[in-house]
Write a structure and sequence with these properties.
Helix content is 44%, strand content 13%. It contains eleven helices and nine strands.
């Protein structure tokens, strides 16, 4: 059995169900650039958090609850499924689902699975992202995962069983759609061949993507601004001015509320708190400056140097240059 490090290394060499939503730009927590960097070895797979570890731990319970609710038999697959043509497309399924057996019939190797089961846990505060139990209304990233698994395992249905908190258990049913499946596989094929194999990053979709792609700078390199860049700089400056005006208005309204509240801790309506203004608990902080004065040698011994990062700065005098250029063009 592969440990986490080995599994992470193995995942570099294929696209899996947890990748496809991000590749299509439908995962709110992961971008195509993140996947590209993992597959090309430029970044390790994102570390697990408590929610992810709990989801893995709770998988067995969710599968058991599904079997109890439906009467189906569920089994862990004994293999990784691989697409017959696109061999870099793989599927590690949570469970395979079989029809319930008569009492006198044993579970044998000849039985054919009827559907796929995916087991999930989700925050009860995000239930609005899901439709009614029994529907196919699930977050797009999970929908892509189900489409991916059905395409590779060639099974007609995926049941997605979800435990919200510890009190709401739902089952969603996604049926195989060949047209959607073809589109997803085509997108994956382009991503793998045009970006991973050629080592060319996909287009950035956020500021964070840019920071990851262009982490290092060349001090001797500069770009001469053209008319288009100067116009974009002017638009950026105008938006910054609007933002400052909005922040100023927000501060004024906040101050007005404070003047009304005075020493009151909350504003309520129909016994519901609308606004609170409470003192936080006292916390103890380490005073590094005082420690350095008192123990300079010990302070140096425990200093840790962190790598700097690129800082985007919009020079305030750029607007003068933009206005000057506009006057020349006029």
């Amino acid at each position: 059995m592969l440990n986490n490090q080995d599994f992470t290394e193995e995942r570099r060499h294929f696209i899996g169900g947890s990748d496809i939503g991000a590749i299509l730009g439908l995962n709110p927590y992961k971008s195509p650039v993140d996947v590209w960097m993992e597959k090309t070895g430029k970044a390790s797979s994102q570390s697990t958090n408590l929610a992810m570890r709990f989801g893995s731990f709770a998988e067995e319970f969710v599968a058991s609850e599904y079997a109890l609710t439906t009467g189906y038999i569920v089994k862990e697959p004994q293999k990784t499924f691989i697409h017959p043509e696109l061999t870099y497309c793989k599927a590690n399924l949570d469970r395979l689902v079989f029809d319930a057996l008569p009492q006198n019939q044993a579970m044998g190797p000849s039985l054919i699975p009827k559907r796929i089961l995916e087991c999930k846990t989700a925050s009860p505060f995000r239930q609005e992202q899901w439709g009614d139990s029994g529907s196919n209304q699930v977050p797009f990233s999970y929908l892509c995962q189900c489409v991916w698994y059905m395409a590779i395992a060639e099974l007609p249905i995926t049941d997605l069983a979800v435990l919200f908190g510890n009190s709401d258990f739902r089952i969603y049913t996604i049926e195989r759609e060949l047209e959607l499946e073809t589109t997803v596989l085509e997108k994956a094929n382009i991503f793998w061949n045009e970006h991973v194999l050629k080592d060319i990053p996909p287009d950035s979709r956020s500021e964070e993507d840019c920071k990851k792609l262009f982490e290092r700078s060349s001090p001797e390199k500069a770009i001469e601004a053209d008319e288009a860049l100067l116009q974009m700089a002017k638009e950026y400056q105008a938006l910054l001015t609007q933002e400052q005006a909005i922040e100023s208005s927000i501060d004024q309204i906040k101050q007005a509320f404070m003047n009304v509240m005075k020493d009151a801790e909350s504003i309520r309506f129909n016994n519901q708190e609308l606004i609170t203004w409470k003192k936080t608990k006292s916390i103890s902080r380490f005073d590094g400056a005082q420690f350095e004065l008192a123990h300079p040698d010990l302070y140096k011994q425990f200093q840790k140097i962190s790598n700097g990062s690129r800082r985007f700065v919009f020079k305030t005098n750029i607007l003068n240059y933009v206005n000057a250029i506009n006057e020349e063009l006029a």
